[in-house]
């Protein structure tokens, strides 16, 4: 009789163990499924953050810091060039944001330059790839100056003025490099500034 009781107790214990293990596995699988579905709250959209830094913080936390190591290695292996590239991209992005604000606040500027806001923005964005420190005001001024002076001085183009600015020269200095006298450059700049000021009023 005692053998039968012990046998029954062993069988009951074994079933309880199996039931416990199965219940734990089910709960763990359900937890993983919930973790994967948790992202649906964002509707599958991009991670939070803006500009060129978007996702870097999330990448670091999700990879346990390995992405930070990767960025550090990239910086070391490229002798700092990757850091420089990120910095250039940040400056260009900040300047483009300011241009968007300017275009929104002064819709009369593109028509005064015989173009559209989209085309003016696209041209400025392309110029930022070469010179991320180029201000939108200088890009607009270079555009107007080339329109005012191009007929008499074919070598004074917007690209030529932008190249001078990228090399560190001022607009006035660049105009002199392109063949204008100091007084001609000053007068040309005053005229362009006056016309653009009037355009910003509309």
Number of helices: 10
SSE topology string:
HHHHHHHHHH
CA distance, first residue to last residue: 104 Å
Structural class: mainly alpha
Overall pLDDT score? 78
Helix content: over 70%
Query: What share of the residues does DSSP label as strand, in percent?
Result: under 5%
Shape: globular
Uncertain parts: 25-50
- The whole-angstrom Rg is 32 Å
Largest sheet: none
State the total count of DSSP E strands. Answer: 0
Describe this structure in words.
The chain has 202 residues and is an all-alpha fold. It is built from ten helices and no strands. Helix 4 (81-105) packs antiparallel against helix 6 (117-130). The radius of gyration is 32 Å and the shape is globular.
Question: How would you summarize this macromolecular structure in one to three sentences?
Answer:
The chain is mainly α. The protein has helices at residues 2-37, 56-62, 66-77, 81-105, 109-112, 117-130, 136-149, 158-166, 171-177, 182-199. It is 72% helix and 0% strand.
Key words describing this protein structure:
globular; mainly alpha
Helix and strand arrangement:
Blueprint: H1 2-37, H2 56-62, H3 66-77, H4 81-105, H5 109-112, H6 117-130, H7 136-149, H8 158-166, H9 171-177, H10 182-199
Helix pairs in contact: 4-6, 7-8, 7-10, 8-9, 9-10
């Amino acid at each position: 009789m005692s053998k039968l009781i012990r046998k029954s107790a062993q069988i009951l214990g074994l079933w309880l163990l199996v039931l416990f293990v199965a219940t734990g596995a089910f709960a763990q699988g359900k937890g993983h499924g919930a973790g994967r579905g948790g992202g649906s709250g964002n509707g599958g959209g991009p991670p939070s953050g803006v500009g060129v830094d978007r996702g870097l913080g999330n990448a670091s936390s999700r990879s346990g810091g390995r992405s930070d190591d990767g960025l550090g290695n990239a910086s070391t292996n490229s002798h700092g060039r990757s850091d420089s590239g990120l910095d250039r991209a940040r400056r260009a992005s900040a300047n483009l944001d300011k241009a968007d604000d300017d275009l929104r606040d002064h819709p009369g500027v593109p028509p005064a330059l015989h173009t559209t806001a989209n085309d003016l923005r696209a041209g400025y964005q392309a110029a930022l790839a070469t010179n991320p420190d180029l201000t939108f005001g200088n890009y607009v001024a270079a555009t107007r100056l080339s329109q005012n002076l191009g007929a008499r001085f074919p070598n004074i183009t917007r690209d030529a003025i932008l190249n001078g600015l990228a090399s560190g020269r001022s607009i006035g200095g660049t105009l002199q490099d392109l063949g204008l006298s100091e007084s001609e450059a000053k007068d040309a700049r005053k005229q362009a500034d006056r016309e653009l000021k009037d355009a910003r009023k509309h």
